[in-house]
Amino acid sequence: MKKVGNNRGAHNKVIDGSLFSVLTKGWRFAKIAYTDDSKRYRRKQQWKILYHAFFSPYFAYKWFDLIESGNLNFAFKYRPTLYIKPFRVYMSTRWNKKQKVKVIKDTYHFVLQHSDVFMPFLKDSSLPIAHLQLTEEIDAHISIGYNYRYRKEGELVMILDCEKLGGTISSGAFSFEKIETGQWICRIGCVQGSNKKQDSVSSVKAAQKLLHGLRPKTLVVYAIQEFIRQFAFVALYGASDSIQAYRRKHAIHIQFLHHIHFDYDTFWQESGGQFTKGGWYELPLTMERKDIKDFKTSKRAIHRHQYEMLDNISQQINHVPQYHLTYMPFKIKSTN
Fold this sequence. Notes:
Strand order of the largest sheet: 3-4-5-6-7-8-10-9
Number of helices: 12
Helix content: 40-55%
Distance between the termini: 35 Å
Largest sheet: 8 strands, mixed
Number of strands: 10
Order of helices and strands: EEHHHHHHEEEEEHHEHHEEHH
């Protein structure tokens, strides 16, 4: 494709009929990605990519080539909606297209390097990494998978699931990035509860009680911390309130309609996070624990059980890179 002029204008001029080729390809990608949806919804998605590709044709050309025949082709086979990601908000409201593409590429590059571990994740199943026996009759699982619901917050999702409590209790979406030193960092785009609003509050409270007072969202972050340390990641970041993707999920953001009732800044601070440039909180790679002696005598027993549970989870996660797919994957239902 030939490009005339610079790449700064809204219309990057393309010649030799390439613009039509780019638009046609985007239209086709949307048709394939949403083939199981209604015709009306599928057509809506087709018009969306047509709009984005028309105003950024040269970028669209390079991106489409990358996912269709380049390094991301293997991921695109399993994630057909990948074609639209860098055109829309992704992980941070401050990121430009180049930053979005880099993190997406880096994440799937890491996944490809460790495909023996991540293949269930690619195939829309989950990779169970820990089992929790909460009571004699109630157990829970922590797993890594994919969920369309978090498509704008990260490529992978850490899930805390308990069937007896209604399914998913809490989830955290995250992606990977390779920095200049050649080392890896992890970015958490969001940590959320169940999307079943009616039972969400009661399920979370019940789960927290069974987790010896530990909040389910904190447990999800802990699982991410333990998992990435097995692969020698050097840093972990969480998206602050100011850059949350939900702020641009709608064409027009209306605060009282689209506001989420969760204070990310406070949550990251309570998790030991320090605010850094770009709107990210740098989190510790290991959960900070108080000494049992620092708790009141009446609280020591519950925290001792909590620490024992966390140690058990950590031991199970330690085996994931070693034993890869010895676990039986179970299906994760993607929600729109």
